[in-house]
Structure formats: C-alpha cells, structure tokens
Amino acid sequence: MSNITIIIKTFQRLKSLECLLKSIEDQKLNNIPIIILDDSRENYKDAILEKFSKLNINYIVTEFDIGLSKGRNILLEHVKTDYIIFYVMMILNLIVVLI
Questions:
Q1: Taking Cα atoms as reference points, which of 1, 4, 72, 11 lies closest to residue 43?
Q2: Mean pLDDT for the chain overall
Q3: For 25-36, what is each residue's pLDDT tens digit?
C-alpha cells in the first residue's frame, strides 16, 4: 500500500478531471489511492470510474456546491495515509497542488 493519497475536489470540470487522471495513469501511479469529491449538478462518477478502471479511485458525490473548505474536510476524512497531494479544480480551470 502506498503512503500517499491523491485527493481531488472538482466542480463542473469533467474535461480537466479526465486530463488529470490521464496524467496520473500515464505515470503508472495505479496503486496510489485517489479520492475525488464532486459537488456539481452533473454526476460524472460512472463515466470516470469506467474510463479509469485501472486506477484506485474512490468517487464521492455530494450535494450541489458545498464549497472548497467543506469539500476538503470531507476528503480528509477518507484519507488513510500519512501524506496527501491535493488538487483543486475550480470553474476557472485552475489546479492548485499542496503537498
């Protein structure tokens, strides 16, 4: 088991999420847990899980627009490793990485 988890908060960013997951997949990081929290009106869970079935993804869908802080706290509740990589995907298509 890996000692790092990738957590991703997304809101209406399907194409950006696919690009990010493709990058992770291309780096052969298949054994690293990935937790995605999606609080948009569109539910992309089934499409993402099918397309990236090789990755270890836990996809959480919440109520509409819970915000970054609440979303981050929900993500952190699901982490079981010592370290995280945190991606934030917002409407402006910005990606912030905190380690």
A1: 11
A2: 82
A3: 888 766 899 999
pLDDT at 89: 65
Token pair of 88 as six digits: 């934030």
What CA–CA distance (Å, rounded) separates 30 from 5? 11
- Whether the pTM exceeds 0.85: the reply is no
- What are the E-state strand segments in the chain? 4-10, 33-38, 56-61, 83-89, 95-98
Give phi and psi for 19, each to the nearest 5.
Answer: -65, -45
Q: Are 11 and 37 in contact (CB under 8 A)?
A: no
Question: Any residues with CB less than 8 A from the CB of 81 and at least 6 apart, and which?
Answer: 1, 2, 3, 4, 5, 33
SS3 36: strand
- CA separation for the pair 89, 43 (Å, rounded): 15
Q: Are 34 and 5 in contact (CB under 8 A)?
A: yes
